[in-house]
Amino acid sequence: MNSALGVDNIRLRAVADTILYLPLTLAIRTGLFRAEGLDVELHVPGPGPRSANAVLGGQAEVALGGIWRPAMYLALRKRLVAFAAIARRCPMFLLSNPEFVASGWKGLEGRRVILCGDAVSQWVVFRMLCEANHVDISKVRLLPDFQPEEGAELFAAGVSDYIYIGQPLAEELILSDKAHLLVTFAEAAGPLPWSVFMATPKFLSDRRDSASRFVRALQNALKQISDQKPAQLAEAAHAAFSSTSSSTLEQVIARYKQLGAWPGSTRIESADLASWERMLVLQGVLSPPVDWAAIVDNSFAEAAATEVVRGSA
User: Fold this and answer.
1) pLDDT digits (tens, 9 = 90+) for 12-64
2) For residues 103 and 65, what is the distance between their CA atoms, to the nearest angstrom?
3) Where are the domains of the chain?
4) Segment 205-222, tens digit of pLDDT
5) CATH topology of domain 93-189
6) What is the reported pTM?
7) Residue 200, Cβ neighbours under 10 Å: how many?
């Protein structure tokens, strides 16, 4: 903390720089963190454990990623506490080649499917919905671990019949008539605690006021998303996603809003945790029961929701 300047510094690590994290983008770009006296330094080391390890190693105060990781880390006696949610839906889509006549979920069997991304959470949801729709996953010709840009290019060239991919490339493939939208996983999987902010118990105790102001800024960003039209939000965020056209960005934001990707509150809901635990346990990622009370602290979210409502009254 730079007390001489009255600015509180928070080093944040995120697993990705994505439109799904629009509340964070708005909090940074529209001055919501600054209004709370915070200087948030965002670095994106990429997927995997790097963000969480940066927090545990003292190189950052806050990490943004999947809540399954702090749940697994309890076995390592490494404790991270999730204190705010930012995304409440799986952001993935299943698309088919427009020249291929899809025949429902069972049509995946015997066909090539490009899987973009390497997050455990993405794979869990894909497998769960395949199994729920009676797909024999052993009969699907999976092409895993492609980076989204490469996967989209190969899919468009006809290398696979299906692609499992996120935004904005899913939107670009649909808009360019290079793909048909088959499954929206946000709808198919329902509400999940997809992405959360996490920190050590020491940070949340020693710098409780900093964490409170951090969450309040995010709550104001969620209110901004709720109150504004996609075109306004796209204009505010476009500098952060300059490789995506303004029109596509607006379409992505509109779709995410319609799907309920962004929660109304930063609170991590117990029903969402229960749904996610069932999936993670069935796929062998976690062992039951998960001690969510040890890794979830909703006090910051609850206070922020009350304060933002009071401030806008």
Assistant:
1) 999 888 999 999 999 999 999 999 999 999 999 888 899 999 999 999 999 99
2) 34
3) 8-89+192-312, 93-189
4) 999 999 999 999 999 999
5) D-Maltodextrin-Binding Protein; domain 2 (3.40.190)
6) 0.94
7) 18
CB half-sphere exposure, 44, CA atoms < 13 A = 9
- Considering the domain 8-89+192-312, what is its CATH architecture? 3-Layer(aba) Sandwich (3.40)
Q: Which amino acid is at 47?
A: P
8-89+192-312 and 93-189 agree in CATH topology: yes
Q: Tokens 């390592």 appear where?
A: 76
Residue 38 three-state SS: strand
CA 40 to each of CA 7, 22, 44, 250: distance values in angstroms, whole numbers, following the listed order: 10, 15, 13, 26
Helices assigned H by DSSP within the chain = 22-29, 32-35, 50-56, 68-73, 120-132, 148-156, 169-175, 185-189, 201-206, 208-227, 230-237, 246-259, 270-282, 292-295, 299-312
- Residue 54 and residue 255 in contact, taking contact as beta carbons nearer than 8 Å: no
